[in-house]
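User: Here's a chain of 46 residues. Predict its fold as tokens.
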Amino acid sequence: MSKMTEFIRKINQTKGLKPLIDDFILLPESDQDMIRNLAKHFKSKL
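Assistant: Prediction complete.
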């Protein structure tokens, strides 16, 4: 869960989307999947 906390903190600190996308691409596949699933979960809550 610390990776997710770190990722959320990074989103909050990032100025603009480009650096965030660059970081996302560098993450391992499993972390990318975790983030995608989390995004889908939040999207379904809206």
